[in-house]
């Protein structure tokens, strides 16, 4: 299933724009785009919402016919158990996380111990924990960690764009992670020369216009057949002013949805 994530609304929910969208507003925009899945990912206000506010957001998702996934950072048992409880509130069956959280960088052995502590609870609740590929943890180390934990409810959130900063090739990450992939972050990316031709900028691109060989990902991971959801997000730089930036973000989302639907 193709879904949208919080990073597809990064600027629309930012305090840099007038009247930023709240969570229910993002869900309503998702419904307007005929999308049935939304990943609340790295959305800081989520942990500050009252029980009543969480209930209103969960009710809005059900009313709109939108399935929810959650996303956070870190493998601290207390934190992951908090998100397991949030998953129950939202009827979510997947939580995406990362090995490191701001201010907390456990070694792989410690991360394994922490994950072993929480995975039985995730298994009982039927919730999958998907650890994302990114440059701070080499892909081989992430695969090894997931395999050693050995739970049928742990896997990988595949984001090939992230691994480039660790001097890895996106195509290699796709092929190595495919068997363990439980979630995909779908965005395009490209390099451009900086002014004066001194160095490059690695940033986002409209889906289908950058360097990401997404057809290769589809053929390798086979997400539809395996029930692996693809979550649209963007690396859209600030465009100089709020209105231009928001309009570009909306256009990138439409482009991404059209592209992903067209290549099936």
UniProtKB/TrEMBL annotation:
InterPro entries: IolE/XylAMocC-like, Xyl_isomerase-like_sf, Xyl_isomerase-like_TIM-brl
Domain (Xylose isomerase-like TIM barrel) ranges: 80-254
Recorded GO MF terms: isomerase activity
Record flagged with keyword NADP: no
Taxonomy, superkingdom: Bacteria
Keywords attached to this entry: Carbohydrate metabolism, Isomerase
Name of the protein in question: Sugar phosphate isomerase/epimerase
Organism per entry: Agromyces albus
Taxonomic placement: Bacteria, Bacillati, Actinomycetota, Actinomycetes, Micrococcales
């Amino acid at each position: 299933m193709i879904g949208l994530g919080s990073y597809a609304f990064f600027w629309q929910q930012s305090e840099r724009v007038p009247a930023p969208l709240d969570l229910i507003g993002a869900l309503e925009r998702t419904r307007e785009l005929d999308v049935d899945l939304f990943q609340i990912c790295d959305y800081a206000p989520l942990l500050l919402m009252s029980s009543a506010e969480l209930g209103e957001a969960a009710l809005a998702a059900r009313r709109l016919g939108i399935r929810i996934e959650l996303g956070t950072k870190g493998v601290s048992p207390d934190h992951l158990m908090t998100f397991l409880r949030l998953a129950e509130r939202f009827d979510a069956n997947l939580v995406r996380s990362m090995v490191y959280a701001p201010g907390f960088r456990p070694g792989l052995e410690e991360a394994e111990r922490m994950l072993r502590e929480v995975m039985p609870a995730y298994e009982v609740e039927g919730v999958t924990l998907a650890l994302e590929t990114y440059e701070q943890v080499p892909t081989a180390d992430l695969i090894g960690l997931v395999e050693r934990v050995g739970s049928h409810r742990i896997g990988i959130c595949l984001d090939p764009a992230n691994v480039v900063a660790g001097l890895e090739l996106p195509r290699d990450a796709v092929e190595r992670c495919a068997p363990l992939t439980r979630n995909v972050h779908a965005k395009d990316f490209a390099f451009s020369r900086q002014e004066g031709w001194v160095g490059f900028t690695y940033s986002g691109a409209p889906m289908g216009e950058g360097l990401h060989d997404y057809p290769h990902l589809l053929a390798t991971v086979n997400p539809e057949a395996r029930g692996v959801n693809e979550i649209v997000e963007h690396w859209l730089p600030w465009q100089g002013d709020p209105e231009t930036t928001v309009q570009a973000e909306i256009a990138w989302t439409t482009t991404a949805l059209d592209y992903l639907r067209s290549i099936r």
